[in-house]
Amino acid sequence: MTPTGPLDTEHQVSRREFLALSAAAGGALLLQPGCGSRENAPAEAAGPALVQTGYGYEKWDEILRSILQGFVRNARATSDTFAVCDYRNGTHLENFVTAGGKTCDSVTRILPALAAAVSTPEARKSVEVEGVEYRLEDILHSALSHGTDPRDKDFWRYASPGHSDQRQVESSIVAFSLWLAGDRLLDRFTPQERKNIQDWLASCTKIEVRRNNWALFTAVNHAARLALAERWPEFSGDESFFRADLESIDRMYAGDGWYHDSLEGAEYDYYNFWVFASHTLYWDMLVGERFPDLREKFRNRLKQFLETVPYLFGANGSHILYGRSLIYRWATLTPLVLSYRLGLWPLSTGLLRRICNTNLSFLWQAGAWDEENGCLRESLTPHSSREICESYINNGHPYWGMQAFFTAGFPHDDPFWNAPEEPLPVETADFRKIIPAAGILLQGHKQSGQVEMWQARSSGHYPNKYYNFSYSSHFPFNVGQAEGQVPPDCSLAFSGRHGAYGRRSGTYAGEIVSESEISWQWKTTVGQAEVEADSRVFIDGELQWRVHKVSFGGKERLTASESTYALGLEPGEAAEIHSGGVWEHAASRRSGQAVFIRAIYGFLDHHPLAGFRGREDLNSFCPRAMQASVSAGIDPGGPRLLIAAVYASPSPLPLGRLLEATGKLPPQVAEYAGLEA
């Protein structure tokens, strides 16, 4: 019987039951980021009715087909086995390659989508490339049999017995994909081939990796082998090993459904989506019914987490961009679709559709797909900064997002494809939401569709990706560095003689004082001076009142500069700029987005929209981006009081309204600063 909605939450789903409930595939969607363009703007509600995107199975399948065709072309150009793939003009690293130097994770990361399609009779079964039809099951079989055969030229090689290895990461999705593809595929392997797969997977669990999220990769590896051992004697796993893995994951749990990324750190980012939530769901599907106490604990956490998820998405479809590994893109959707299939999605199917359709559309239409080279880009868009990529990113890494195409196993008549979309929280009403354990404050603005995020704390981790005062769904941050320095957008920065520069870029602590107030204590070094700052932001709609008390020693005078969000612009576009005695306003003529900043106290100078150190090409998303600022020269000593009003909106207020709104200090800001309102 074909289900008409998510499964009952209490249902015990075995692999055979799961496969009996699945079949379908993925494609394109409809929203645009707005780096200087009004075209393809988010659908707006007409009266009480939400305008539907109109996207379902066919459009998702369009995207999946394009990605698979690109994979086949590039894999065939690399070898005849489908076990390796070097995408044309892609980055080549040595972290997971064959003895011959060919890339392997470009293959392992596409396996979950292939397996989902193979697992169900209704789904796409082949892809045509240059007149040749390639069966997905054959690709899976070839990749796994050649990649795990130590005698094969494209052998993936065993994981290092002496240190952590990228193969440990990849082994989790290899193992899960093998299980998901099911009996039909596994019966095609000879006993020796199944033993080869077992040996390769086992090599990836020789070393314990329990200080960060990697513990879930080895836990899933063992869980999959235990599940496979029920039928095929070549497989075996170790329950005690994965229990120890899960105990370490417990120590990373903060509360409210959120985890921090390691035992030592305090990073709360999208790894909660593309490892913690997704891989605890994999473990649940594989062996959860054997361990009901563990499963219940993880499911309770998952429910709390999923209930926070919709608040991270803007009306343009973007999740708030911040943190590392952002080129995993729609991997944010992986735990959403997994939980839906298992009956664990706690909200409506219509809301799930809205999140998934708009997010995939936003990222795809922004230029995720490189048509010329037939691959997912290593940058978010064709013209954005390459510095969005971390040192571990190679040509295969963007394909971590292919786990979201677990949807390829959904029946064609599943409500996921055709239930009426329901509005996102930001499309419903203004909101403020606190996630206490993660120290996250979220705010949504219905009129503009913008969602913003403030974090109370973070530990030293990628200084160009975690340390702005706030992040936005509509104003992507500057990620590239100029002369080795992190840009000052949406932050307070200091400069001194001989190019000395500093801003918040290391461990900081703070607290969410209320739904409209957040404070931090932080330090930075500028030349020989150590600057201490006590910063507090008062949130007033899309307007932020930023108050700083700054102290530093030494003899040299510094310049303190407060900057707006980065305003994205198209190539060749001239922003519309207005300047006043103490303020700056800039808007994109094409998108209508605007930024505004006003010196309120302590700041004496104002600076029109400009790139950091003359660079306009530093943005994580847009071809060009610049920020406006106010500044002041300050002498050693302190504390020195600095106050600025900062505003950004995709649908901005008129300049006159902004000047009126910032003409008088709000009482609570004045009280905190010790000034008269």
From TrEMBL:
Domain DUF2264 spans what residues? 101-424
Organism (species): Candidatus Glassbacteria bacterium RIFCSPLOWO2_12_FULL_58_11
Read off the Pfam families from this record.
DUF2264
**What is the protein name for this chain?**
DUF2264 domain-containing protein
